[in-house]
Amino acid sequence: xxxxxELPELELVxxxxxxxxxxxTFTWKARDASMFPRQQNANTWxxxxxxxxxxxxxxxxxxxxxxxxxxxxxxxxxxxxxxHGEVPNEIxxxxxxxxxxxxxxxxxxxxxxxxxxxxxxxxxxxxGVIGVKWDRANSKWHVTIGYKHIxxxxxxxxx
Length: 159
Known about the structure:
By secondary structure, this protein is an alpha+beta fold.
């Protein structure tokens, strides 16, 4: 499994981001001049970004993310981190919508639990039921549990 990037210090993250748990959105807070090499840089950054939406870039896999100090972080992980003060293991979007980062839609789970809440593959599952697929060669419904063959049936209801 891919090693997760270490998250920035919690108090630093909380000083930089507002997280609205009811909507799942982030906004940038105004940054103190001590975070910049010159006062002018702080003024420019605050004018351009303070109060604007943060962590809202759309990833090709459907998640939202954004950069903090030139490193990208997932919005759902940051939401959990800010709200609970702990680094999450894996975050599951309960309703399956990867862009819905409301706190009520997020749960900290292990890999196994996260994989159980995935949608059925439209390419690999033609029936909409786990373990049941159409076998074109035999013109029957093929039933399996894991890798174990259960049988082939003419009727979907029998399968």
